[in-house]
Every structure is written in structure tokens, then in C-alpha cells.
């Protein structure tokens, strides 16, 4: 309010001192001045407004804002129901935590103080998803292959509401944020106008909208969906991490906070450490949402930013993404689920397989799942090969992960899961064993999108030691593939959707996928608890021993007969741009891996 008065501050100060105003008189005069100059004694954070969606129960959603000294008590009332009240804090802020609400729409919330009131309308309670990351999350609906169809369809989701926070970086934490993109409201119900901006990279995120739409349908249209798009193209994770996140990753040396200087071939935007967190995330603390979707990591490859960040940035990502999850959960005061996208294919100095591995470390945190995108290429994309236009498929895979991990639906959300590999005694062939569940049903090899040689180059590759330090990579021959028949194991019926913001780390997906988290130091596990080291009971090497060969799906592979040498490693789709992938009946591909034959474990292959 004081900043609204601007040049009138000295006049007001003169009047107060001259007339020796008491506190009650000053408070009354302050309120009159606010009204006269167009300010309000009571204000809301800009994320609170008409057409918004607040998180439904069992969570307790929060509404918050600021008030002048003349407003000691703030109240909030949903329709004509319970009256909530809270005192104004000494810094002028206030926060009200609402009781858990059922999924519903069409509410009004009235906020009141001594001299002011604000009414927000068309408020819903439902599922709220925060969508963040860099350009592939910012990539908007109108830039996709299915733009015309998706934009036209957007009118069919009347209880889905969209919100975009404009790009804003700051060297200090902000308490509110800048105006969104021109001509875009803070909250807008789903419609062609809200979804289909004709200006590239503005609104609305195609991945975010795609997940929201599919979840709206999966929840039978009875649960409103709120989507927050907070993304920044080209951004790197250091700009998203709060200061407390850097402290968690103390094994790595970071440059002095501040705007770094680009040198050489770097293409990183000029963002300070924590800059996006300060300018775009901190302003909405502690808003409540159930899920965070994260599509980021391209800018954290080592080929970018070496002058700003002189360390192994991809290895640092193993800690940084986990630290982002943990610190955001603490700062938002809510244990939301976290889903990330494993990076899409593009020729990138052979760094993408390592980066995809490094992304998987976050699973050790718990309440984390992911979708793969290494087979969704688009080398002729007009937005660059790093920006595939098939965002609908990415959204489908994320939605299946949500249905499985957050809503406990009986769906297959991952491709065939490799549990163990058993080499032959002569080192010339191997059995690749898969999890005995529906993820291994209907397996087939198929071309990846944007491939060139395609399935002429099958996904399995041997690293062969030919002696004298000479190592070669050769494509494996597929001898046999055994599928899993789920009819004898599983019911095909789906369970009721029951929200559970924090799935148990002992879930089947967690137990199998956690085995990808390899080479973690004991100190890492002490910070990010609930992870299972690769060699512990329950890891891949243990799973295979508990299953008979007659019940376990497998793929038998061998080194081509004309190749000399003994295998050192077995790789699956472990390259920047995989040409062929192993899919199941849901057309979900297996996660890439590198298996070290001599060490008998899955590992990240670093030259």
C-alpha cells in the first residue's frame, strides 16, 4: 500500500506529525488514503482469484495475502458456510488454511476485514498440478502436431482451469509475481482462447494441458482440474533450486551466486542461481497442489555452461533434482508427488544416455515416478530437434504414471522392466529377464519416432573386449523372446480412483525401478532416505533368483558369430537417438540401461 502512494508519502508524514495523530486516528486516516489513492487495505496473492481451482481433500488448501495495519483480523467464508479467521502478521501477511473440501465447483469465497472485502467467484475444489521445467514444458499446444484438434477439444472441460506465471527472475525472493503474458488472465477456464495462443512459447503448455485433459477424463469429469504452468525455456536446474537445495548438495562446488558471464560456445540464458525460484516459485508459497510435473535437464548437460559451472553438471544433477523435490516439499509444506520426463532424443555429444541415468536418481526420494521420451524424436521440428511436436504421447505416459502411482489404478504405466541379466559361461550370450507382470505383456520391437536406420539396428548392444584395450560395440542378435501372459496372475478390472499424494515406497513400481538408482554413495542415501542400494535385498540381482525361468519373461541375445571377443557390457537403447525400442501392449518402451557384466550390476557408463 505504501508503494501505491509514491510521492504522497512525505505529505502524509507531515500531516501525521503536525496533527500528532494517535494510533486509532492514524489507522482510520490510513484506510481513507488507501481508498482515495486506489489502494486496498486488504489484498490477495495473485494466485488467488476468480475461476481458480483449490486442492480438494484430504489436503487442506490455503489462501493468503496482505493487509494494512488497520486490519488486524482477516476472515474467509466459502459460500454461506463456516467463517474462518486469522490475525494479520507483523509483516502484513495473512494466511487461512481451509478444511478439506470435496471435489466441487461454482463456489464463491468472501474475504473480509474491518474496512474492506473481496469476493472471488467460480471457485472449484479438485486436483491441482504444478507444471515446471524448460522449453519442452513451455512448448505450447498450438505448436504441436495435434494443435487444431486439441484446441477445438479444449472447450469440453468446463471445470478445468489454467494459469500461467510469466517468466521472471530475481536475485532476492519475491512475495508476489509479475503480470502474466499479455491478454491472458490469471485463471481461465479451459477454452480455445485459454489454450491456443498464436504466439509461440506463450500459453498453454502442451504437456501440462495434455495431462490435465487425460486426468479430467480418467476422473469421469467429476473432479475439477487446476493447471499451473511455471516454465522457462533454456533454464537450468540451478536457477530453480532454492538456497537450501544447494546446501543439500554440498559435495559439489558451485560458483558465487549472481549473474554468470557466458564465454565460448555456451548458450545458457543469463539467470542467477535460485533466480527462477525467487521470481516464480517463492511468490506462491505455500499454495497447495497434489502433483508436480517436471520436464527439464537438457540445459544441464556438460556441453552447456562449462564457463559458468566448472564441474560435472550431469553428475551434480543426481543430487540437484532430488534436492529440488525435498526442498519444494518442505517450502510448500505439502508432500506432493513428483513426476519427471526422461529426455527426448537429439544428437548431443553422447551425453543424453548419461543424463537420462542421472535423472533416475530422484526415485530414491520416494513419491517419484517418470515417463520416458527417448523414442519420441522429431529431427525436422521447426522449433529445433530438441523440441519434438508429439507432446500428446508424453502427456499420455505421464498420465498413466499418475493413475498408477498417485491414484492406485490397475494400469500398466511403464514398458517392460528388466530385472536381471545372466551372461552365459562363455561370455557370448545372455538372458535378459523381465519383471513377471503385465508390463512384459505383448512385447514387440518397433521403430522409434524420427529414426533413420530404425529397427535394422535392434536396441540391445554388446560392449566387447577384444584385448589390448580394444573395445567395440556390436548389435546383439535376438534368439528368443518370451512374453508374459497376465491372465493367470492379474484381474483386468480397475480399482476406484483414490487420491494418495504420497505413494508408498514399497509399491511394485518403486521396488523395480529403484534398481536403476546405481552408484549412490552412503552419504546420498543418508540425505535422501527410503532408497534401496542396488546390491541390497530386493534389487534386480535378487529379484531374478526368486523367479523360476518358466514364469519369468525373457529375451535371449548373443554376440554375432563373426565378432571376436568377450562381452564387458550389455546396453539397451543407451545412445542419444535410439533407433529401435522394446514395447509392450500399451506401446510403452523399456527404460534404457547399461549393464556391467564384470561388476554384475547396472551402472551409468561414463567414458
Note the topology.
Blueprint: H1 2-5, H2 9-18, H3 23-36, E1 42-44, E2 53-55, E3 62-67, E4 73-78, E5 83-87, E6 93-97, E7 104-112, E8 117-133, H4 135-138, H5 147-153, E9 160-164, E10 188-189, H6 192-195, H7 206-218, E11 225-231, H8 237-240, H9 243-248, H10 275-281, E12 291-295, H11 313-332, E13 337-341, H12 352-359, E14 368-371, H13 391-405, E15 418-423, E16 429-434, E17 444-447, E18 460-465, E19 471-475, E20 477-482, H14 508-513, H15 522-527, H16 540-543, E21 554-558, E22 566-572, E23 580-583, E24 593-596, E25 601-602
Parallel strand pairs: 2-8, 8-11, 8-12, 9-11, 12-13, 13-14
Antiparallel strand pairs: 1-3, 3-6, 4-5, 4-7, 7-8, 9-10, 15-16, 16-21, 17-23, 18-19, 18-22, 20-21, 22-24, 24-25
Q: Can you walk me through this structure?
A:
This protein has 607 residues and is α+β, with helices and mostly antiparallel strands. Helix content is 22%, strand content 23%. Helix 12 links the parallel strand 13 (337-341) and strand 14. The longest helix is centred in the middle third of the chain and has 20 residues, at 313-332.
Amino acid at each position: 500500500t505504501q508503494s501505491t502512494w509514491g510521492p504522497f508519502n512525505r505529505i502524509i508524514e507531515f500531516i501525521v506529525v503536525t496533527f500528532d495523530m494517535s494510533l486509532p486516528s492514524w489507522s482510520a486516516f490510513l484506510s481513507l488514503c488507501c481508498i482515495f489513492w486506489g489502494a486496498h487495505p486488504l489484498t490477495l496473492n495473485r494466485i488467488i482469484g476468480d475461476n481458480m481451482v483449490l486442492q480438494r481433500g484430504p489436503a487442506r488448501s490455503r489462501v493468503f495475502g496482505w493487509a494494512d495495519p488497520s486490519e488486524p483480523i482477516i476472515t474467509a467464508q466459502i459460500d454461506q458456510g463456516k467463517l474462518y479467521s486469522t490475525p494479520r502478521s507483523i509483516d502484513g501477511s495473512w494466511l487461512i488454511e481451509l478444511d478439506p473440501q470435496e471435489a466441487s465447483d461454482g463456489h464463491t469465497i468472501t474475504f473480509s476485514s474491518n474496512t474492506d472485502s473481496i469476493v472471488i467467484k467460480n471457485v472449484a475444489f479438485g486436483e491441482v498440478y504444478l507444471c515446471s521445467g524448460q522449453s519442452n514444458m513451455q512448448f505450447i499446444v498450438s505448436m504441436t502436431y495435434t494443435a487444431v484438434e486439441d484446441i477445438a477439444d479444449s472447450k469440453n472441460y468446463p471445470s478445468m482451469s489454467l494459469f500461467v506465471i510469466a517468466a521472471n527472475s530475481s536475485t532476492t525472493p519475491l512475495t508476489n509475481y509479475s503480470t502474466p503474458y499479455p491478454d491472458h488472465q490469471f485463471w481461465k477456464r479451459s477454452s480455445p482462447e485459454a489454450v491456443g495462443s498464436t504466439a509461440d512459447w506463450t500459453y498453454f503448455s502442451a504437456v501440462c494441458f495434455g495431462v490435465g485433459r487425460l486426468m479430467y477424463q480418467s476422473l469421469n469429469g467429476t473432479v475439477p482440474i487446476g493447471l499451473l504452468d511455471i516454465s522457462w525455456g533454456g533454464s537450468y536446474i540451478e536457477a530453480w533450486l532454492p538456497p537450501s537445495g544447494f546446501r543439500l548438495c554440498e559435495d559439489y562446488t558451485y560458483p558465487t551466486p549472481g549473474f554468470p558471464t557466458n564465454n565460448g560456445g555456451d548458450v545458457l540464458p543469463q539467470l542467477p542461481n535460485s533466480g527462477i525460484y525467487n521470481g516464480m516459485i517463492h511468490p506462491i508459497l505455500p499454495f497447495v497442489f497434489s502433483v508436480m510435473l517436471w520436464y527439464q535437464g537438457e540445459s544441464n548437460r556438460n556441453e552447456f555452461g562449462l564457463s559458468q559451472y566448472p564441474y560435472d553438471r550431469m553428475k551434480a544433477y543426481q543430487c540437484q533434482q532430488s534436492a529440488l523435490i525435498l526442498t519444494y516439499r518442505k517450502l510448500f509444506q505439502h508432500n506432493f508427488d513428483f513426476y519427471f520426463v526422461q529426455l527426448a532424443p537429439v544428437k548431443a555429444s553422447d551425453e543424453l544416455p548419461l543424463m537420462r541415468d542421472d535423472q533416475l536418481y530422484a526415485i530414491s526420494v520416494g513419491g517419484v515416478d517418470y515417463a520416458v521420451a527417448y523414442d519420441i524424436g522429431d529431427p525436422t521440428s521447426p522449433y529445433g530437434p530438441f523440441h519434438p511436436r508429439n507432446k500428446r504421447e508424453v502427456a499420455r505416459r505421464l498420465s498413466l504414471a499418475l493413475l498408477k502411482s498417485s491414484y492406485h489404478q490397475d494400469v500398466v504405466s511403464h514398458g517392460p522392466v528388466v530385472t536381471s541379466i545372466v551372461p552365459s559361461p562363455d561370455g557370448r550370450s545372455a538372458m535378459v529377464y523381465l519383471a513377471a507382470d503385465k508390463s512384459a505383456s505383448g512385447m514387440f520391437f518397433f521403430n522409434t519416432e524420427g529414426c533413420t536406420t530404425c529397427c535394422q539396428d535392434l536396441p540391445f548392444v554388446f560392449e566387447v573386449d577384444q584385448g589390448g584395450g580394444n573395445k567395440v560395440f556390436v548389435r546383439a542378435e535376438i534368439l528368443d523372446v518370451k512374453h508374459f501372459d497376465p491372465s493367470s496372475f492379474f484381474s483386468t478390472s480397475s480399482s476406484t480412483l483414490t487420491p494418495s499424494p504420497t505413494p508408498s515406497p514399497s509399491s511394485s513400481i518403486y521396488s523395480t525401478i529403484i534398481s536403476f538408482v546405481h552408484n549412490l554413495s552412503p552419504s546420498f542415501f543418508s540425505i535422501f532416505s527410503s532408497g534401496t542400494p542396488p546390491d541390497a535385498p530386493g534389487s534386480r540381482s535378487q529379484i531374478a533368483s526368486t523367479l523360476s525361468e518358466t514364469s519369468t519373461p525373457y529375451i535371449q541375445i548373443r554376440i554375432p558369430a563373426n565378432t571376436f571377443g568377450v562381452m564387458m557390457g550389455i546396453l539397451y537403447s543407451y545412445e542419444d537417438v535410439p533407433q529401435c525400442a522394446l514395447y509392450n501392449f500399451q506401446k510403452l518402451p523399456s527404460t534404457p540401461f547399461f549393464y556391467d557384466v564384470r561388476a554384475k550390476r547396472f551402472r551409468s557408463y561414463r567414458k
